[in-house]
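hey can u check if this looks right to u? its 583 residues, i copy pasted from the old doc so theres a chance i mangled smth
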Amino acid sequence: MKYQSVTGKEWILSNYNENLALEISQKLGIDNFLSKLLSIRKIAPENCQSYLNPKIKEFMPNPSVLKDMDLAVETLVKAIKENKRICILGDYDVDGASSTAIIVNFLKNIYSNFFIYIPDRQIDGYGPSVSSLKNIIDKKGQFLITVDCGTSSFEALDYANQNNIDVLVIDHHQAEIKLPKCKALVNPNQLEDKSNLGYLCAAGVSFLFIVALNRSLRESKFYNDKKINEPDLYDFLDLVALGTICDVVPLIDLNRAFVYQGIQILKKRKNLGIKTLMDVSDLKESPDTYHIGFLLGPRINAGGRIGQSDLGANLLTTNDPKKSYEIATTLDSLNKKRKSIEEDILNEAYLLAEKENTNEIILIANKFWHEGLIGIIASRIKERFLKPTIVISSTNNIAKGSCRSIFGFDIGLTILAAKQNGIVIKGGGHKMAAGFSIEENKIEDLKNFLISKFKSSKPNFVQNNFIEIDSILSANAVNEKTYEEVSKLGPFGSGNSEPKFIVEDLTMIKINFENDFLLKVLFKNSSSLYLHGICFKNNKEKVIDYLKNFKNHKFHIAGKLSCNDWNKQRVIEFVIEDISLTH
């Protein structure tokens, strides 16, 4: 059947191998529906169990496969033995805060002479800078660990060397051929690293670092000599899951195991800061990737965006209930303020983006936009127009830009190329996101450079103007059993997309609820079976318009299943991504 999507997207039913689905079902005793979904994802029968129940030990590499890992551990152990004052400098986003917390919370078990430094977005900029190094020196810092940053901080690390500060870099961002001067650089995305772990975020790399550090301390009898207990590293997986989900790295292999196991730790609410933030966010049900990515992550990010940059890291490292509550409530308040400012900017940004929509990439700029929000604005525009998007805010003739890309166009490498061509002052990132600073008079040069790079990569470009459908469901199949079967394929996110379905020939009979963010509707089919639908309003104007104005009209709907456990009542809802009119 050809569906007439109101958003103009094509609905494509996924092909699947019936023989593979049958083999999975017979060998593993998995029902036909789940076997079909596994076959669509091309999971071989021998890999199904590890896919459905990913365990860390099955995917965990020897951390020493990462370039400089052993040297990094050796360097830090030496600094600890010499009682050097250690500074942990992290990025101000969720991955940076999580990575910082992983290192800090581990060090708390074995060492006390350290402190945290999180650069201010507007004063210091991204990563270590000369100004932040001066502040660290003022705080008597003697040894520096940078997490989720540092790979491209040439000037700052030169300054550190000149002032006899040893530096250890733990990062995951794209590296140039030239590397900064430091004692050790642990980054799977540097050219000479052969670990094949470039899909990890900084929190994942940081976890591998504490695994290697813990191993070294155990083998050297450190714990026995100090008469202290070896920390349980599984307790750190909630932080790894937090950083992995919020940095939108692909949920494959080790990342998938990190998130799967990390969510189990999150449910136990062992980290005081995460527990308090869940309470402040009124999150009562068991957390999943949605709650982490859309409830907890934005709140942790809010400090770095429009408030105090170190709030996120301080929340994730504190053991003081009073301090934890103060930080969590502050972040919650800042997040509400962020939403209000973002809404004002977004309305203006959409209008500018419409004018740029004839180009292969969208680049928009406004000197009055809040620098801490341009990344979110870029994400929203990319979601609407399905094009690589660059949003720029400028101050004192130096502009800051944030980029979000689509599959097939590596924006991190492209920004590095722009830096090497003298177009941007500094910048970098990874495949789907990047940031940079640039002189205002070179913005047009950057735009032309990006368009040229995009055109040259077009043979590998993947168009996103379609919805890939796993299966057609009957209305009575939208139930708890189906939801539970689908959930077995989780955790969902980048690289492991949530299954999507079509339900045909539904009549919308009423609107149950509406606010600024979502619309809840009630459908029924020809057999008078009811189906609860929910549509989130972000970039869904056409869908919302049809639902609100075509009561008693018949629709086909495309989307995914969701579970609402409100007030101890479980309702399975269909999250509507698109609708098609019937004839």
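The radius of gyration is 25 Å.
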